[in-house]
Amino acid sequence: MRPPTPRTILKATLTHRVYVPYVRIPEGRMVELPGRGSTYVTDTPGPSPDSPTVVLLHAVGCTGLLTWFPAIGPLSRRFRVVTLDQRWHGRGIQSDDFSLADCADDVAALVDVLGLEEVIVAGYSMGSIIAQRVWRQHPERVAGLVLCATTDRFRASVPERAFHAGMEVAMFGTRGLSRSRIAVRAARTTARALDLQPDDVHDWAFAEFRSTSPWAVGQAVAALGRHHSRPWLSRIDVPTAVVVTTQDHVLPPRHQLALARRIPGATIHDIVAGHAACVLQSERFVPAFLEAVTTVNARRRDFSRRKPPSSSVPA
């Protein structure tokens, strides 16, 4: 039996009304990325105009806010914090195809639109995969990486290879469904409802969760199955921290640790928590994540001294 995804975990817990942290939800806006499309962005200022910026990338089947809402407030006491909905998720770009490479290019485009320079890119689960690709494709825009509940590949075992191969075949035949009138209408109807700020955070979280269609989740999972960053992890030349979820049944902790050890100088910040720790065990995740981001930011100056004047990354 295949392991549960973050989406199925969140659906089960939200519908059963388990504890979800009650925090202020930042307001956002639609931002046009020239030549790419529009996506929903939140931009929370830090304590000063020159605060370093952290761009947060969300898990599969979620949105920027749904993955990160418990962490935004604490993080904004030290950093400017930006979230976005990745394409096909929430109010993200509705393109004809989904690819991790396009998602990484979207992040770089948003950095340009917001007038940012080097940023710390942090990702959770799928977001950590996209964060890896942001460095791979746009190293000049990345000052540091924080990778949470991550891996360098998804086909490391026979069951995983069988699952992802089957998912890829199945999703190839249903790509057109993601653009169907019914699916798009349902996603937009739910997205409009998200403009309200309900008193019950469970209602808000469940509505946010429902804003991504099942078709989009399937296509994203199929794309994740093709990810393989092991050959180039050792070339990462920015300070990196890896937050390891040691009770993770979706991405095994040994894979998370193996990735961390392949990145030069990466620090490891482990927590006793499962794959949905970003929300459901936020009391453990947020302090470790804040420590990881702070560590990466503190090491930026040291890494800039060590890097050669010009850095090129082979394609």
Automatic annotation (TrEMBL):
Domain AB hydrolase-1, chain residue ranges per copy: 52-278
SUPFAM superfamilies: alpha/beta-Hydrolases
Keyword Nucleotide-binding belongs to the record: no
Keywords: Hydrolase
Gene3D superfamilies listed in its UniProt record: alpha/beta hydrolase (3.40.50.1820)
UniProt keyword Transmembrane, yes or no: no
Highest taxon listed in the record's lineage: Bacteria
GO molecular function: hydrolase activity
PANTHER family to which the protein is assigned, alphabetical: MONOACYLGLYCEROL LIPASE (PTHR43798), MONOACYLGLYCEROL LIPASE ABHD6 (PTHR43798:SF5)
Protein's UniProt name: Alpha/beta fold hydrolase
Source organism per UniProt: Nocardioides hankookensis
